[in-house]
Amino acid sequence: MSSKHIDTRRWWRDAVIYQVYVRSFLDSTGDGVGDLAGVRAGLPYLRKLGVDGIWLSPFYPSPQHDHGYDVADYRDVDPLFGDLAEFDLLVADARRLGIKVLLDIVPNHCSSEHPWFREALAAPPGSPARSRFHFADGRGPDGAEPPNNWHAMFGGPAWSRVTEADGRPGQWYLHMFTPEQPDWNWRDPEVGAYFDGVLRFWLDRGVDGFRIDVAAGLFKHPELPDSPDPEADARTRDSVNPLAWNQPEVHDVWRHWRAVCEEYTAHDGRERLLVGEVSVPTAREHARYVRPDELHQAFFFDLLSASWDADAFRKVIDEAMQDIAGTGSTVTWVLNNHDQVRTVTRYGEPATEGSGLGAARARAAALLMLALPGAAYIYQGEELGLPEVVDLPDDVLTDPIFRRTGSRARIRDGCRVPLPWSGQASPFGFTSGVEGAKPWLPQPDYFAEYATDRALADTRSFWHLYRDGLQLRATLPQLGEGTLRWLDTQPGVLGFVRGDGLVCAVNFGTAPAPAPVSGTPLLSSGPCPAGVLPGATAAWWIGDDTDS
What is the average pLDDT value for the chain, to the nearest integer? Predict the structure, then answer.
């Protein structure tokens, strides 16, 4: 692990962060669910891989209707995952190893079991307790229709009706995800003050920053009018309802949170990071969230969603470099996360094979991402080349999208199956200490081919590609923060220069002939014989001639 980013004031600008989906990383207790002690045990593995930090999925007390994104208490650890003492040990060990720790914070909504929401249910309409959420009277003579026509992102209407204290049907409350996740009303000042306390609680415990869930949400149109396209969010499972997302007031929240982080930085010199999950239509709107006094970073999802095509990749990279980097921030690149189909499968890989087209494209995309200027986030298991598990039985599925819609389309369980660490049969080292313990989601037999111990032993594996790329990125001055210059290439090939002569090129597989490679090779995603770059392959090299 290089010391390039460790304890430097601007460490986040070109950091590589590893997303830990806690319940699927490593189980230390034998109950089949990953936990904080498991994350702590895995830190040496992550240090060997070479990442600069980790982002932990929610581990707060929660009824787990949406795997912890329905938070009942923002200032504690669910016993399922450990306790605060274990969390403190994790932070201390990570710091000793030079690994930053980011927490996932969920400010758009909470759990229906949060004490404030329970108080709101017991309080009368118009009460201060209800003003912390979005309660409204229904439409129609008896209030039996929802207040507006909005749909939830996970299916169904975005409103649920409550039964009042006297037993009669009453008001409705807003939930843009599930009924178990009521949306906070950020127009109530008590909500902002509450989250100030949450931030400070975890910053005081030594965290290095926060990944912010649904960062473009928080504020809704104050009049809650009907949407011109009420099914937009449910249809796309994206934040596209302009009345429910991306309201201008949200930027005031991020300016305030940035000031809180700067206060801690001024105290000890350690810069804290705010990275947002920002789903907005254009890179230009995205850029507004990373202005100098707002979020440090926001995930740029356009690379993840781009089709496997050289022109499509160049277009989204150009837009990001122009609009986002133009703010003074750096672009935050991602190819996957806990809500997306795994990269190998998304790029065309059959779920039970590991050496086909999808794997080749995923390896090439990884080298491309790591060569781009800015920061990068890696979802756990991507460094193993794990495919999506597409054949989970209906009776084990836990995604609320499936429960709400009855459809398997766009469900997320397949990318959340627990990691394989060792051995030839489930649980593949994921859970130990209890004979017969089963992971919370079943692992397929073919996971044996992707187990970590096998990946570390095979120098041709995904793991070594990522590790070698991260080592070069940490040591070569051309990589990390900076700019790029495009090269003139044949159709179907993308090539650019970083710094003083470091070339990254990707053959997307549609070029009429293999692309020529001229210079000193550094790393490639696959075999590059006789100075050529075959289809669905990426390579880094120090170029002899970087003008063409």
Answer: 92
